[in-house]
Every structure is written in C-alpha cells, then in structure tokens.
Amino acid sequence: MKNKTIEIKLQEWQYEELCESDRTLVDLAKEATFSSYAPYSKFSVGAALRLENGDVVKGCNNENAAYPVTLCAERTAIFSAQAQYPNVPIVELAVAARNVKGEFVVKPVSPCGSCRQVIAEQEYRYKRNIRVMMVGEEGILVAESVKDLLPLGFEEGDMK
Ligand code: THU
C-alpha cells in the first residue's frame, strides 16, 4: 500500500486587492444574485463568467417545484455562454450568493459537485484552465483551475 497526497492550491484575496477586471466580475456575480429564482431555498446565487473574447455572461440559480430540476447559477451561466458564443472558451468565473436574510454570504460560496464537473468539461474541451473566484464578504477564494476544486475528476480520457 502507498499513500498518495494530492495538493490543491487556493488564494485568498480581499476585494480591494483585486485588479479592476476581477472586481468587475465579482460585482456582476453579486448583481446576478438579484435575478435568482429561489422561492424554495431562498438562497440566491449569481455567477459571472468572462470569455476569451472579453465578453461577460451572467447566470443565476433557477429553482423548480420538482426540486432536482433546479439549475445552479454556474451551470446557467456556462450553458448560456456556450449557446450564445459557440466555441469560445471561458477563462474565468465568479460565484456569489445571498442567504435567506438577503445578505451576501460571509464565507466564500463554492460550486457544487455537479457544477465542478461541468466546469471541468469546459477546461477539457478547450484545453485551458478556468479561474474560479468564490466570493465571500470575509474574502474571495481563487482557484487557478477547477482541478483544484475537483481533484481526480472524471474526464473523457478516463474512458480509454
Ligand atoms: N446553488 C447554486 O446555484 N450554485 C452552487 O454552487 C450551490 C447551490 C443553488 C442551488 C439551489 O437553488 C440553492 O443554491 C440551494 O442549494
């Protein structure tokens, strides 16, 4: 038996430390929470992604009375971007959330497992990393690749 250790890397930033384009993406993710349709969880999530061509696409969670039909903010943004801009890679994505009291969350919100898998497919498809910014009032966690959020993720190559 051998033990194996996988290292992941994250950065923690304060909003004021971010460059202008990162601050804009964070602001747009926060703005997108106000488009959320979350009558069941009352947890309003917003995402904003930047494409390689510089355009930004927003997404928000859309819930459903049939609960599992709900789609997260990140996947809403990603699928919307790929529908509007076919074959344009995503370079970075920010996710923000407001809690049941309507306040922005203090701890950074991080993408669920399904969203991580979808972000991983985008990295695989375009052979480039996607920077993921997870927004909290106490700080913004940044992963340079979704591989830092989904180590040992399943991808096309695993089917060979
Ligand atoms: N949600 C997202 O939109 N993104 C995530 O990464 C985590 C969860 C949504 C789904 C559901 O509408 C609500 O948050 C509570 O789980």
Tell me what the structure shows:
By secondary structure, the chain is α+β, with helices and mostly antiparallel strands. It contains 3 helices and 6 strands. It has a 6-stranded mixed β-sheet. The longest helix has 14 residues, at 113-126. The two termini are 25 Å apart. The relative contact order is 0.18.
Write the layout of secondary structure elements.
Blueprint: E1 11-13, H1 20-32, E2 44-51, E3 56-60, H2 73-84, E4 90-98, H3 113-126, E5 131-136, E6 139-143
Parallel strand pairs: 4-5
Antiparallel strand pairs: 1-6, 2-3, 2-4, 5-6
The structure holds tetrahydrodeoxyuridine (THU).
Tetrahydrodeoxyuridine (THU) binds at residues 38, 41, 43, 45, 61, 63, 70, 72-74, 111-112, 115.
Structure annotation, total helices: 3
The Cα radius of gyration reads: 16 Å
Hetero groups in this structure are: tetrahydrodeoxyuridine
Low-confidence stretches: none
pLDDT averaged residue by residue: 97
Which structural category do the helix and sheet elements fall into? Answer: alpha+beta
Query: How large is the share of residues in beta strands?
Result: 15-25%
The largest pleated sheet is described as: 6 strands, mixed
End-to-end separation: 25 Å
* H-E string: EHEEHEHEE
Question: What topology, given as strand order, has the largest sheet?
Answer: 1-6-5-4-2-3
Tell me the helix content.
Answer: 10-25%
Tell how many strands the DSSP assignment holds.
6
